[in-house]
Amino acid sequence: MGQTMGQMLREWDMIRNNLRSLWYEAQEPCLLCGADEGPICKNCQEMYFTLEMGRCQQCGKLVEPDVERCADCEEGKGPQEITRAAAWGHYTGLWKDFIWNMKFKSRPLLLRGLAHPVGEAALRYLPASDGLVPVPLHPERLAERGFNQAEVVASLLHWELGLPLVQGLERVRPTHRQVGLRRGERLENLKGAFIFQGASIQGRELWLIDDVITTGATLEACAEALLEAGARRVYAFALAGGREGQKARE
Ligand SMILES: [Zn+2]
Ligand SMILES: [Zn+2]
User: What is the 194 CA–ligand 2 centroid distance (Å)?
Assistant: First the structure.
């Protein structure tokens, strides 16, 4: 005998509920703390992304609202050549862990859930651009890690905002790790490390994309190469950066 009407209805109910959960339980947990409110819960938003704070226009770090430049940049220690910079969140706590996992545990897919908020943040702080340029890794580092985290962020923005990816910025010289180096040493370390060898970027306004901004020395060296190749302006955006008044950590 076939199913009774009652069994069929019960089965249909189950199927319907499963379908419903596929479509409607899109409510994912917070990617940082696991709370019931994704992709980033209110608590984490306030803790790490503090939208009401400003961003230092020159180095991107989080600053008090209405402050244009952080004290370091006022003293001329910020990256030159960058028209405007912005870090999305404060590089600390769970946000720092998240980026660290993405980078060193080879989990670029972690970022996928953040495409929309990342896009919104970039547009909030920077004027639209003609293209996205990821900060390159040296081929040796790339081989070690398997992917370039800056490229992952740039592709995310590419899909989310429809801005073209610009290839051709290359790291031609391996550099020492920057941790522990002072700004002058970092600049020296990065001198001539980047070169642009792609299709013409003459007159273009570009967003330089990285995962973390620390002193901005890398951005400065990249921006120099892009401007030398004819770019009109270079803006910078990163997932995370320092916060004024709190010690910068790598
Ligand atoms: Zn959270
Ligand atoms: Zn600054």
Answer: 22
